[in-house]
Structures are given as structure tokens and as C-alpha cells.
Amino acid sequence: MMNTIFRQYTHDDSFEQVYVSTKFLKEYQIALTFAIDYDENGLPTNGVFRPTWDLTKVTPLAITQFKKNHPDVNVKVFISIGDNETQYPFSPKENKSWIDNATKSLTSIIKDKDYDLQVDGIDVFYQHIQANPTDFVECIGQVIKNLKEGGVIKVSSISPSFIVNKEYYFSLYKSYSSFIDWVDYQFQNEVTSVFDPNTLFDLYNKLATEFYPKKKLFAGYSAENQDWTTLSPIVFFLGGMDIIKRKKGPGISIHYHNYYDQN
């Protein structure tokens, strides 16, 4: 029997469509995509975050009902900050004001009675960064620290990928490891395509050896069509099972960003 964590990135209530097996899962994480610090016209707001997931579908009732339907699985809700899109990079005007704005706005979203989504944590998902590593580490690390020490969140995760891993995310992890519970590495963003499960396993093994402790390291994947050229669903499924069984990785994650469009 596997004792695995599964994370689903979603902007709607598609988590209701996924089969949850208590035989394999000990925890199910819903990561809402995304809270961004850009306004409706795409202009940067310097750390003032707003939710862009579907507020009509991701409701307190939907979360409560999902938890009620799966009483034997620990369900956790994350707000994922950042984006995979190039038009929403991490780009603070000034560190202190960004940290203050981000801490305040994320606290407001998490504690807002209108949302009331029983949020447990935040996930950092910036894949495009227009700042130096020192500023990224200071801004993101301090916000996670503020939210944790203020009792706003209980858990946090970071989601690096190949290009931004070493300079940015690993530097962040080294400085704030005690505040970071999970590392959800995004394998669909590899520079070189992953064509077989053994390659995926080897990449995970390298990450667990050189960068992050295995006990915190997820294997992340995107099921969106445009990402299949880098890593196909079957390769990730087979490689992911190997990582969980042989390497004893704690969990895997999958993006279902356009679930309703694709089904």
C-alpha cells in the first residue's frame, strides 16, 4: 500500500471529477491557480495579489463538500502565487513594499469570509523571474516567513523548474528551508524532452542528491496539451510510479488548468 500525497493544480472545481482512492492516498492537495500581483489590465501591482481562479466554482461549499466526500483523506488547500505565463513575471518595484503588500493581500485573501476556502498554505509558482536571485530570495522567503509566523498558513511549498531552479529556488530553499515544507519540481519545463520513464527517474534522483531532500520532493507534471511534447502523460505516469515505489518520493502533482476545455 502506498502512502502518497497527490496535488492537483486547478483554477476551477475540477477536483470534484478526480477519483480519490484512500487505498493509495494519505493527502490530497488542491492548489488554486493563480493569485497574481497584476491587475485586470495586466499591469503590475507590486505584491498586491488577487485571485484569478473561478470564484463561481471554487466556493466554500465546494471545498466543504469535497472534504465531506473524502473523510479518510487529509485534504489541504493551497493558494498558488505566480504563473506559468510570460506576461506575469516576478518583478517587484522595491523589496520592502512588495513584501508588505504581498503579506497583507495574501492574508486578506486567505482570511476573507467571502472566500472562506479553508486555506492551509501557499505555493510559489513563478516560472518567469525579472529580478536578481537575492531579491527573489528576500521577497518570497520573507512573505512565507511572515505568513507562517503570523499563523495565516500552516504549510508552504515552492515549485521550481529547470531554468529558475539553481539560482533562484535552490537559493531560496537554502535560506528558508525551515519554512518550506514541500518542493514540487515541474518536470514539464525541462529544456530537453523526457522520452522515457527511466530518464524521469534519473532526473528526480539527481534533484534529490544535489538540491532538495527526498522527503520533501514532489514530481510535478502538467497535463495541458502544450506540455506533452516535453513529457507525455504515459511517461510521467510510469516514471512517477517508479519514483514513489523505488525512490519513496512523498508525492506527485498534476496541472488540470483547462480541465473543462479538454473534456
From TrEMBL:
InterPro entries xrefs: Chitinase-like, GH, Glyco_hydro18_cat
Biological-process GO terms, alphabetical: carbohydrate metabolic process
Protein name: Putative chitinase
Source organism: Lupinus albus
